[in-house]
């Protein structure tokens, strides 16, 4: 994988940013141009030069907007023929991976960079690991996983829909300049494809699908003991069902559940405040680890749901004691109660 530095070449993706912070990502083409609100950016002004330069737009011709059948109707609308809107400056950079993900063509909805970053961190996905991913979508997560494991690692992606797989492959190829050699993209149902994979061959598994709780058996078969399972789901019902399935399976550690909220800030002199808009809930991340075969995951003692229908005063002493024991509650002792009353009496006396 070649480092993304040096002169900008035709075929590369670049990002144009104006002084208002508006970004446009486009592919450089010899003799081509990028249409903006303020004229055209000529690609020949960019190709062969380095990042960090500033280019100026040229006037955009708009003859095609003139009514060809009744041109007299546009006689008083000179802006439809020519718009002298050049002269706007844009800084030129290669897009960051987060920028590329948000701007790339999509087949399915992508994961946001805030969630992708958490997957990489919480999943402990790093150089040299072997990772299994299910649900390529548009390739946002795949490109980040490929970047995380590097050429010394390996990523296997299973995508149910062939058309989504093509979109993901094309986006990854555009980002790297060629299809990564350390990526194996397979199409088909997760259980069917995973059944052909060797046992305990993967260090990490990332599931982005509607029903990950139905895939836990095959996931456990192919993951190495101690491996990390990361699941991305969007609704509370999915999250609850997945967590209970992990607990019932007995071969996964107590799941950790997180969601990430993102808010940017404005800082202009003394005016420092958060933005009015933020990226709120997009999904939940459920993280668990695989136990070794023959061992059952340790479980926390479940706290029984409080009974809101039975009148505890109607129970016998034994039944009442048993229910209090289940609820991990205890009657206050007479000694404790006397101490509380003494303390309260003393505090009331201080009021005069």
Automatic annotation (TrEMBL):
<comment type="similarity">
    <text>Belongs to the class I-like SAM-binding methyltransferase superfamily. TRM61 family.</text>
</comment>
<comment type="subunit">
    <text>Homotetramer composed of a dimer of dimers.</text>
</comment>
<feature type="binding site">
    <location>
        <position position="208"/>
    </location>
    <ligand>
        <name>S-adenosyl-L-methionine</name>
    </ligand>
</feature>
<dbReference type="Pfam" id="PF14801">
    <property type="entry name" value="TrmI-like_N"/>
</dbReference>
<protein>
    <recommendedName>
        <fullName>tRNA (adenine(58)-N(1))-methyltransferase TrmI</fullName>
        <ecNumber>2.1.1.220</ecNumber>
    </recommendedName>
</protein>
<comment type="function">
    <text>Catalyzes the S-adenosyl-L-methionine-dependent formation of N(1)-methyladenine at position 58 (m1A58) in tRNA.</text>
</comment>
<dbReference type="InterPro" id="IPR029063">
    <property type="entry name" value="SAM-dependent_MTases_sf"/>
</dbReference>
<keyword id="KW-0949">S-adenosyl-L-methionine</keyword>
<keyword id="KW-0808">Transferase</keyword>
<dbReference type="Pfam" id="PF08704">
    <property type="entry name" value="GCD14"/>
</dbReference>
<dbReference type="GO" id="GO:0030488">
    <property type="term" value="P:tRNA methylation"/>
</dbReference>
<dbReference type="GO" id="GO:0160107">
    <property type="term" value="F:tRNA (adenine(58)-N1)-methyltransferase activity"/>
</dbReference>
<feature type="domain" description="tRNA (adenine(58)-N(1))-methyltransferase catalytic subunit TRM61 C-terminal">
    <location>
        <begin position="100"/>
        <end position="268"/>
    </location>
</feature>
<dbReference type="InterPro" id="IPR014816">
    <property type="entry name" value="tRNA_MeTrfase_Gcd14"/>
</dbReference>
<keyword id="KW-0489">Methyltransferase</keyword>
<feature type="binding site">
    <location>
        <position position="159"/>
    </location>
    <ligand>
        <name>S-adenosyl-L-methionine</name>
    </ligand>
</feature>
<keyword id="KW-0819">tRNA processing</keyword>
<dbReference type="GO" id="GO:0031515">
    <property type="term" value="C:tRNA (m1A) methyltransferase complex"/>
</dbReference>
<dbReference type="InterPro" id="IPR049470">
    <property type="entry name" value="TRM61_C"/>
</dbReference>
<feature type="binding site">
    <location>
        <position position="184"/>
    </location>
    <ligand>
        <name>S-adenosyl-L-methionine</name>
    </ligand>
</feature>
